Amino acid sequence: MIETPQNVKSPHQPEIDRNVKISVRNLYKVFGDQPEAMIEFVRSGISKTELLEKYHHVLGLNDINIDMMDGEITVIMGLSGSGKSTLIRHLNRLIEPTAGEVILDGEDVLKLTETELREVRRKRMSMVFQKFALFPHRTVSENAALSLEVRGDDLGEQQSEAQYWLDRLGLSGFEDSYPYQLSGGMQQRVGIARALCAHSEVMLLDEAFSALDPIIRSQMQDLLLELQRELNKTIVFITHDLDEALKLADHLVILKDGYVIQQGEPQQILLHPSDPYIEQFVSDINRARVLRVRSVMKAYDGEVRPDAIMIDPDITLEQVIESVNGDTSKHFVVAQDDNPIGVLSMHEIMIAMVPRRASLDGLDP
Question: Longest Cα pair distance anywhere in the chain, in angstroms?
Fold first, then answer.
């Protein structure tokens, strides 16, 4: 059912769930000579531009609060300079914060010793970079097994594990090749294989597909979703592309100038943009291709029209329209495991495909 405005969560308040894997709390990052001295100015509401012009410090992150659920894909998106890559590098402390907390399974990562932090990076958090970050002098197999080598695993186990994931990722026969002999998409698969070999609970992907051609990029997205259905990793994915974010995200976080503008279930962000900035992001999206039946259906009240067509809640509106050749007189009953959970009409589908302004959100069409 479409949420009404009073049910839409604040963009700054993450959902609370007992299965939270990573919890980011009141996180700030200021770049400059005296970052700690700048925090009070930031908390008092100074803008990113004013902080730079007056005090020659750069505001990277401004009071970030996000819960990342166990076994889900959290996508963090925004334009260049929004703070998304800065944020993901705080999760494994490649960047140290100015203030705040990053809680992993109840433990503050920011309070770990160097030894403890190395263990987290080796065993609990793996990272895939946009620029692949493969070692040019190592073979594909050696690159994939790097985390196991660092961990001190037996050579036979390293090779066996690397071979397994290379096979899964369609790289059989390239084990002895070097990175320069592979295409960009194949190199990125090696990077993913390396992350999977580590058997880490959390995978961090920083614009991992941004450098790829559109077709290869789409294939990599499909591959990631296929693996996620099987492995149920906690994945944090950075992108500047809304289509990619909507395709991958269980939970979507949109940043601007270092702070969270809106976060939540992607379908609801698309239906209920909370800010003109979000409206700009979603204005050019093909809503029929992205919106799913479950997001726009009405609640099942026990009555179904005799001519209603049964449909699945997770298919897109585009698929519904195609199935009836655009016949606007059709009605549907939405069923999961043959149990009705909602109803929908073509009229309501047409309404859902019209973008709605934040100021008008929630008004009856």
Answer: 71
Which one, of 63, 36, 40, 41, lies nearest residue 54 by Cα? 41
pLDDT tens-place string over residues 160-189: 889 999 998 889 999 999 999 998 888 888
Give 6: exposed, middle or buried? Use CB within 10 Å, 0-12, 13-18, 19+.
Answer: exposed
Cα distance between residue 96 and residue 116, in whole Å = 15
Q: Which residues pair with 299 in a beta bridge?
A: 342
- E strands in the chain: 20-31, 58-69, 73-77, 99-104, 107-108, 125-129, 202-206, 234-239, 251-256, 259-264, 298-299, 309-311, 331-336, 339-345
Q: Report yes or no: 149 and 158 within 8 Å, Cβ to Cβ.
A: yes
User: What does the alpha-carbon distance between residue 333 and residue 312 come to, in Å, rounded to a whole number?
Assistant: 9
Kindly tell me if the per-residue pLDDT of 213 is higher than 90: no
Tokens of 23: 């919890």
d(CA 94, CA 71): 23
Percent of the chain residues topping a pLDDT of 70 = 92
Q: What is the pLDDT of residue 1?
A: 29
Q: What is the DSSP string of 117-174?
A: HHHIIIIIEEEEETT----TTS-HHHHHTHHHHHHT--HHHHHHHHHHHHHHTT-TT-
Tell me: the pLDDT tens digits for 92-150?
Answer: 999 999 999 999 999 999 999 999 998 898 889 998 887 777 899 999 999 998 888 88
Instruction: Find out whether 258 and 59 touch, Cβ atoms under 8 Å.
Output: yes
Distances in Å between the alpha carbon of 319 and those of 172, 178, 343? 35, 42, 16
Three-class SS state of 202: strand
d(CA 252, CA 249): 6
Are the CB atoms for 144 and 133 separated by under 8 Å?
no
